[in-house]
Design goal:
704 residues; mainly beta; Maltoporin, Chain A; 22-stranded antiparallel β-barrel; five-stranded mixed β-sheet; 6% helix; 59% strand; disordered N terminus; transmembrane; receptor; iron; Beta-barrel_TonB_sf; signal
C-alpha cells in the first residue's frame, strides 16, 4: 500500500472517529454505564475513576468470539498488538511496544488470572494452560506502575474466570469448522448446599491448519473449582487444573515463499533450516484464595503453585524440561478509613515467589541433512546428543501499597507503588552448542555460574477529576523496572534492568449512549532491552534510551437499543534516542548507531472499527475490521512492510431459547494474504509470518 493511500485511509478513519463524538458531552444522558476494574488498584473501582488507560473486554464480546486463544478477545484493543503463529495458544502480544521482542510467549507484561500471577518472576508468560472457554472478562491496564505488576514495564492483563458460584455458566458447547477446527467445552457446577459450590470444566481445541506445513495444534484441559461461604461471611475459592498442549510452529518465509503465499494462500515451506519447531507441554496448576471483611478492613491472601514440563524444539536446539515449579503467595489487605477528613482507601501487602527450573536440558537435533558442513534442513523433532544442562532459580520478594484519597466528591488521588527484589541463580554445564556462524554443532565442555540480582522500584501518582457527571479527566506519572529474562541473561549476562517512566493525561466519558476513552502519553525507557536479529538468531542488548510518544483512543456509540458502533485508534511514535547496535561477527563485529531511528515492528497507525447488534428475539451479530499501517522491518530502518487494511471478522448468532444457541464465526472474511510480522536481520535477510486464510466455525451451545 502506498503511503498516500495509507494516509487517506487513516484520515478517513480519524474523521469518522471524531465525527462520532457528541457535540456536547456534558449534555448527554447522565445515566452512567461503566465497567468495574480490579486490575489497576487491587480494589474494585469504575474504570472512569482510575487515572490510567484501561480497556475491559466484557462477557458479551467474549461469548461472541471463537476464543481459540486470547487474541480473539484482544484484537482491536487500543494500544495492543496481538497475533498468533498457529491460531492456538501461541500468542504474540505487545502493549505500547513492550513485549514486541519476545520470540515465543509473552514478555514485559504481567498476566494474571483471578488475581493469581500467570507470569514467571522474569515476566515470561505461557498461555497454553489458560482455558479460554472459562473466561468471563479481561482487563488490560496499559503502561508501567500497576501494583500488581512485578518487573513488567508494559502493563497488566487480568483474566477473570467464571465464578464457581455462578450457576448461569453451566453449558455444553460443540464447535466444528474449516482447517480441521474443533472447539469442545463443558462446564457443570452448582451449590452443594447453602454455603458450598463446585464447578467442573473440560475443554478440547484442535486446529489442523492444512494451508501450511507443520502447523497442527491440539489442547486438552480440565479443571475443578471449589467455593465456600464461611460462617463469618468470608469466601474461600480453590481451583486445580490440568492441561496438555501440542503445538507445531510453522516457521517464517523468505521473500519468494511469501510471494507464493500471497498468490496461493498456502505456505509450503519455511526459510529456516530448523523446520520442526514446536512446544508440547503439560501443566498442573492450583491456587486458593480467601477474602474476609473485618469491619473497614478486608483481608485477601492468595497461595498458588504450578508444575509444568515441556518438549520445545527451537532454532538449533531441542529444550527438554521436566523439573519446573513455581510457588507463590500474595498477602493483601484493604483498609477503608478517614485521613485528614478525606475518605481514603489503603491497599497493601507482600509478594513472595520462587521459580525453579531444575535439570533443564538442551539437545541437538538427531535427524537432519547438511549442505557442506552447515545444517540444511531438519527431518524430524527427535532429540540427538546432549548439549547442555542447566538449573535456574529465581526468587522474588516484594512489598506494595497504594493510598487513594478523595479530597472532594470530584477529585480522587492515587499515591503508591511497589518495590521488588529479584534474585537469580543460574548454573550451566555445557557440552556443546549450536554455532550460528558455522551453521552446525560444536562440542566442548564448560561450566558457568551466574547470580545476578535486581531491585525493581515502581512508584505511581495519579489523579482523576470529574469535569461533569459523565466526563472525567486524569493525569498520572508512573515508573516500572523491567528485568531481563533468564534466557536473555544466558545469551547476554551483562544485561541491566530497563527503566520505563510514563507521563500520561486522558479523558474518559461514560453515559447510557456514549463511551469514550482517550490517552496521550510520553514514555521514555532507559536501557531498553532490545532484540537484534542476526543469521536467524535473536540476541539481546540494552539500548541507551528509547522514547515512546503515543495516543490511544476508543469510542462506542449506542444509537438504538441493542446496537453499538465504534472503533479504536492507536498512534505510536517510538524512536531510539541512544542505541549502538552490534553488527557483524568475529573480527568484523562492530557497533552502529541507530539514534533517531524508529523502533521496528510497530506501526505508527493502527485502527479498528466495529458494529454489533442484539435483538430481543435472540438474533445477534458483530463485525470488526483491523488495520495496521506500515512499519520498519529492522533497527537500521532500511525497509518497511506495508501493513494491512480492513481485515474483517464476523460473528452471527441466534439464542433460539434460553437453553439453546447457535453461532457462526467467519475470520478473515475477504481471505486477505498478509504478513502477521515482517523482519529483516542485520545481514539483509527478510522473513515473513503468514496470516491464516478465511475460516469458518459453527457452534451449538446447550445451557443448563
Amino acid at each position: 500500500m502506498s503511503s498516500a493511500s495509507l494516509r487517506r485511509r487513516v484520515c478517513a478513519s480519524a474523521i469518522t472517529f471524531v465525527a462520532l463524538i457528541p457535540p456536547a458531552l456534558a449534555e448527554d444522558d447522565p445515566t452512567v454505564l461503566d465497567e468495574i476494574s480490579v486490575t489497576a488498584t487491587r480494589s474494585e473501582r469504575a474504570t472512569k475513576d482510575v487515572p490510567q488507560s484501561i480497556s475491559v473486554i466484557g462477557s458479551e464480546r467474549i461469548e461472541a468470539e471463537r476464543m481459540f486463544n486470547i487474541k480473539d478477545a484482544l484484537s482491536g484493543t487500543a494500544g495492543v498488538q496481538v497475533d498468533s503463529k498457529n491460531g492456538g495458544s501461541d500468542v504474540r502480544l505487545s502493549i505500547r511496544g513492550a513485549g514486541i521482542k519476545a520470540a515465543y510467549g509473552v514478555r514485559e507484561i504481567m498476566v494474571l488470572r483471578d488475581g493469581v500471577p500467570m507470569s514467571d518472576p522474569d515476566s515470561f508468560t505461557r498461555f497454553d494452560f489458560i482455558d479460554t472457554q472459562d473466561i468471563d472478562r479481561i482487563e488490560v491496564a496499559k503502561g508501567p506502575g500497576s501494583i500488581f505488576s512485578t518487573g513488567s514495564a508494559g502493563g497488566t492483563i487480568q483474566i477473570l474466570s467464571k465464578s464457581v458460584f455462578d450457576q448461569t455458566a453451566n453449558r455444553a458447547r460443540i464447535g466444528l469448522g474449516t482447517q480441521g477446527a474443533q472447539n469442545l467445552h463443558m462446564r457443570w457446577g452448582g451449590m452443594i448446599d447453602d454455603t458450598q459450590a463446585v464447578a467442573v470444566t473440560a475443554s478440547r481445541r484442535v486446529l489442523e491448519n492444512g494451508w501450511r506445513h507443520w502447523n497442527n495444534f491440539e489442547t486438552n484441559q480440565a479443571g475443578f473449582k471449589y467455593g465456600r461461604i464461611m460462617p463469618s461471611g468470608g469466601t474461600w475459592d480453590s481451583e486445580i487444573s490440568f492441561s496438555n498442549s501440542f503445538t507445531q510452529l510453522p516457521g517464517t518465509m523468505n521473500t519468494s515463499q511469501f510471494n507464493e503465499y500471497r498468490t496461493t494462500g498456502r505456505q509450503n515451506d519455511n526459510s529456516d533450516a530448523f523446520k520442526n519447531s514446536g512446544r508440547d507441554a503439560w501443566t498442573l496448576f492450583g491456587n486458593t484464595r480467601y477474602e474476609q471483611d473485618f469491619g473497614d478492613f478486608t483481608f485477601r491472601p492468595r497461595v498458588y503453585a504450578n508444575h509444568w514440563e515441556h518438549y520445545h524444539p527451537v532454532t538449533g536446539v531441542i529444550n527438554v524440561s521436566e523439573g519446573n515449579y513455581i510457588f507463590g503467595t500474595d498477602i493483601e489487605g484493604e483498609y477503608r478509613h478517614n485521613l485528614a477528613g478525606m475518605n481514603s482507601t489503603l491497599v497493601g501487602g507482600v509478594t513472595l515467589r520462587a521459580d525453579l527450573s531444575l535439570d533443564a536440558r538442551k539437545y541437538a537435533y538427531r535427524d537432519y541433512t547438511t549442505a557442506g558442513t552447515r545444517i540444511k534442513s531438519t527431518l524430524s523433532d527427535r532429540q540427538g546428543g546432549l548439549l547442555e544442562t542447566q538449573d535456574t532459580k529465581n526468587y522474588l520478594a516484594g512489598v506494595f501499597a497504594q493510598e487513594t484519597l478523595t479530597p472532594t466528591d470530584r477529585l480522587s488521588v492515587d499515591l503508591g507503588g511497589r518495590v521488588d527484589r529479584s534474585m537469580f541463580e543460574i548454573d550451566t554445564d555445557k557440552r556443546g552448542e549450536y554455532n550460528y556462524a558455522t551453521g552446525n554443532y560444536t562440542w566442548g565442555a564448560s561450566q558457568s555460574q551466574a547470580t545476578p540480582s535486581f531491585t525493581l522500584v515502581s512508584p505511581k501518582i495519579g489523579a482523576s477529576y470529574k469535569l461533569t457527571p459523565t466526563l472525567t479527566a486524569y493525569a498520572s506519572l508512573a515508573q516500572g523496572d523491567q528485568i531481563p529474562s533468564s534466557s536473555e541473561l544466558t545469551s547476554n549476562p551483562g544485561l541491566t534492568t530497563a527503566q520505563s517512566r510514563n507521563y500520561e493525561i486522558g479523558l474518559k466519558h461514560r453515559s447510557n449512549q456514549w463511551q469514550f476513552d482517550a490517552a496521550l502519553y510520553y514514555n521514555p525507557v532507559k536501557d531498553d532491552i532490545v532484540q537484534v536479529y542476526e543469521n536467524g538468531q535473536s540476541v539481546y542488548q540494552n539500548a541507551g534510551q528509547t522514547e515512546k510518544k503515543g495516543f490511544d483512543g476508543t469510542l462506542t456509540y449506542r444509537p438504538l437499543p441493542g446496537l453499538s458502533i465504534g472503533g479504536s485508534y492507536t498512534y505510536s511514535d517510538y524512536t531510539y534516542d541512544r542505541f549502538a547496535e552490534i553488527t557483524g561477527s568475529g573480527a568484523a563485529k562492530t557497533t552502529t548507531s541507530r539514534a533517531g531511528n524508529r523502533v521496528p515492528l510497530i506501526p505508527m497507525h493502527q485502527y479498528s472499527l466495529f458494529a454489533q447488534y442484539r435483538h430481543d428475539s435472540g438474533l445477534n451479530a458483530r463485525i470488526q475490521t483491523i488495520s495496521w499501517g506500515e512499519y520498519w522491518m529492522d533497527n537500521a530502518n532500511t525497509e518497511k512492510y506495508g501493513g494491512y487494511s480492513f481485515v474483517t471478522n464476523v460473528s452471527l448468532g441466534w439464542d433460539i431459547t434460553p437453553e439453546h444457541a447457535i453461532a457462526l464465526n467467519i475470520d478473515n472474511v475477504f481471505d486477505q494474504h498478509y504478513a502477521t510480522e515482517a523482519k529483516k536481520d542485520t545481514n539483509g535477510s527478510k522473513t515473513f509470518g503468514g496470516a491464516a486464510p478465511r475460516s469458518f466455525l459453527a457452534t451449538y451451545t446447550l445451557k443448563f
